[in-house]
Amino acid sequence: MQLLKRLAPVRADFTASIVVFLVAVPLCVGVAVASGVPAELGLVTGIVGGLLTGLLPGSSLQVSGPAAGLTVLVYEAVKEYGLGALGALVLAAGLLQLAMGALKLGRWFRAISVAVVQGMLAGIGLVLIAGQLFSLADAKAPGSGLANLAGLPQLVAGTVRSGPALAAFAIGAGTIAVLTLWPRWKRAARVLPAPLAAVALATIAVWALDMPVARVQVSGLLDAIQPPGLADVGRLTEIGVLGTVLAFALIASAESLFSAAAVDRLHDGPRTDYDKELMAQGAGNTVCGLLGALPMTAVIVRSAANVQAGARTKVSRVLHGGWLLLFAAAFPAALGVVPVAALAGVLVHAGWKLIPLRELPPLWREHRGEAVVLIVTALSIVAISMFEGVLIGLLMAVAKTAWEISHVHLDVEFPDGDGPVKVRAVGNATFLRLPKLLDQLEALPADRDVDLDLSGLRHLDHACGAALTNWAEQHRRSRPSAELVS
Question: Which strand (E) or helix (H) includes residue 72?
């Protein structure tokens, strides 16, 4: 009996690892294809995420691998610098994550505005959907987010006139339909995860009907691995490359640590150590970079599947990495029969789930400033780029917070007779509130003495202090008994 109790966690982890593996396969391949790299590289990242990151301390039940959230950034980096430079970019990002974890910076990612993170994910989702809509019809996307959106009318017109494009679109749309409806079939969903079911059904349909659609290009696991060369590493001195490395590291870290917080709410086990988890992610990305693979993050879809499947320890995520390795080594040709449109459908569905449609209306009603930050961040990512969009969102969040905490008001007391008007400033006096503050002071009677008391201020910045001193001097010249009390 005691032996059965001891084996119960092992059995639960084994079962959970199979579920996570089945969820991970189509996502690993889909993210790789959408990123413009060989499909095998997505599996390599998933393997490293399981076998290496899964073994390291940090979060016990969180599962790592290639994520849809970095697809847009990776695609742009490969397009700009080439596939050979991808390994160097990921390697440098991993080393940066290791350094941040060693410096105990992991906990500070919890200080990032949730609105900025949601806006970042929403922007990624919009760009991802716009790009993958072209893959749904076996067409090539024009490039950037705005270009993809502008090209949608032409895509629709071209798809309607093309039989093969219509066939591919039918496969992609069918995949999205299965992804949406499959979870409602509880019994089937417990046996087979929705992503795998959708891709399997699409593959069977293409094979059975002999449909003229594009399949995933397979080059072999060992052939796909391309470690960065010295020339690729040398490009890390370029400003643009360094900006991409910083974007990789910060976005991957933020997504992983926010995912960790979400996963912690799903189970009663040990809580995440954010600094150790950041170092685990850094170690994984360092190895992925050495192998020329995709960057990794913790992935909420796989992590939630792991918890819901009954995982007890980190053994489940390590085993899932082993299953991915076995699949990639023993059945590489299986990828060559998968239609690209089906994987595009998986990514469109994943992109849609990144957009916080349910959260936005109540956020707009209750915290309109946060909703504005979210929307502006998302639209900036679509219109400009990932890195600049996130920076704009962060600056807006800081400005909004500064505005909200800089409340200051004047308590004005008019004594009887000709005594001086008593004015007491209370709150945080910053330059943001200076125009309103000066308007109130200048509205006081010009023919009365004023005693301005600043002792009630919790904060007085230099600009505000200088302006108040200047006002008091001007009033003193007109009314000799005006007084400024600090």
Answer: helix 71-81
Q: What whole-number distance in Å separates Cα of residue 160 and Cα of residue 118?
A: 35
**What tens digit of pLDDT does each residue of 200-222 get?**
899 899 899 888 888 877 777 77
The angle formed by the CA atoms of residues 316, 319 and 320, to the nearest 5 degrees, is: 85
- Looking at this protein, which amino acid is placed at residue 151? G
Helix (H) or strand (E) holding 43: helix 39-48
Tokens of 225: 């691995």
| DSSP-based three-state secondary structure for 422 | strand
Radius of gyration of the chain (CA): 28
In whole angstroms, give the CA distance from residue 138 to residue 149: 16
Joined tokens for residue 438:
């000066």
Task: Convert the pLDDT of each residue in 406-464 to its tens digit.
Answer: 788 888 888 877 778 888 888 888 888 888 888 888 888 877 788 888 888 888 888 88
Helical spans, DSSP H, in 210-273: 221-224, 230-234, 239-264
pLDDT at 3: 43
Taking residues 296-306, what's their average pLDDT?
Answer: 81
Nearest to 86 by CA among 248, 216, 278, 223: 248
Assign 3-state DSSP to the chain and report helix, strand, coil percentages, each to 5.
70, 5, 20
Q: Which two tokens stand for residue 74?
A: 């990776």
Provide the strand spans (E) within 371-471.
408-413, 421-429, 450-460
Torsion, Cα 343 344 348 354, to 10 degrees, reads: 60
Distance CA 343, CA 172 (A): 8
Four-residue CA torsion sign, 370, 376, 380, 383: positive
* 142-190 pLDDT tens trace: 777 778 888 888 888 888 888 888 998 999 999 999 989 988 888 877 7
Q: In the 8-state DSSP scheme, what is residue 220? A: -
Tell me if 51 sits within 8 A of 319, measured CB to CB: no
Q: Are 465 and 442 in contact (CB under 8 A)?
A: no
pLDDT at residue 481 tops 70:
no
Helix (H, G, I), strand (E, B) or coil at 238: coil
The letter for the amino acid at 241 is V
Residues 6+ apart with CB under 8 A from 382: 123, 126, 127, 130, 145, 146, 149, 389
